[in-house]
Request: fold
Amino acid sequence: MHTNSHLNPVIIASENGRGGAVAAMELLRRGGSAIDAAELAARITEDDPEEHSVGFSGLPNLLGQVELDASLMNGRTLETGAVAGVQEYGNVISLARAVMEELPHVLLVGRGAERFAGEMGQKPADQRTFASLDYWRTRFTETGVELTGAELRHIVTRLTQPLHLEDRVPHGTVNYLVRDTHGDLASAVSTSGHAWKYPGRVGDSPIIGAGNYCDNRYGAVACTGSGELAIRVSTARSLILYLKMGMSLDAAGLECLAEIVQLNPRVGQYMNIVAMTPDGQHAGFSTVPGKHYLYYTGEMTEPVLGERVTNG
Ligand code: GLY
Reply:
């Protein structure tokens, strides 16, 4: 149930979320809901052709296909929707929302998700751009990799190690955590996943409890980075549970980082977390020093970078 309170709206995002945060804040200032603002913000990042880790122009998998994952969660109702491994449809965050609102399910993958996108009126379109394909061609031409045959598993193990990627190849995900003027929370996560991933690989972004979780009573959490790590220790839901059990935001985030480090991640694997409590406290965490996140509250004129707390 909504209260009549008029709270300061808050948006927390990964560092690549500036454009989406600005548009979402405009919506919140006009009284828009957290879930609408979170979806809008993610759509803007998905549509950005310069953003090669999310949506349109995302970096492809080993076979040169863009496969997209997304999820969103309503903190008031704990309803959630997610899609994974979607080809040929760009705004997967809206598809995730449609799963939440139109189906008795929470997660659709691959062909079923694409069929549902068509039923929801979305038009199929190639999500690859010259730039994103160029990264792929350059990468595979330089390494002389044979793209077919039994070596695929060996190749993916080698090429998904970030230390083997060129510096100019971006990889990431976008996170948005939103509080609206009623105090409702929502979270949205969208990604093209790990560049050069094995076809069908799904990371943490569409796995509720791993890369995304949101509950009005305790807070909202989302992750970027090596999704396999967040899946293995259920990072997003764990952080919320630590808040529920009375930990401070910083203590809860550091506990999640410690759990990830205890996995002995492979060289180059890392995890970033953003978190917000219902009273608008926020923090970013990373296993890598020097990382940032964005925050933007109703009385600010633009999003600002905050430093992520690290244990690295
Ligand atoms: N964190 C995004 C992914 O691993 O796919």
Notes: The pocket of glycine is lined by residues 173, 191, 193-194, 203-205, 211, 224-227 (CB under 6 Å). Confidence is low (pLDDT under 50) at residues 162-170. The chain has one domain: 10-310.
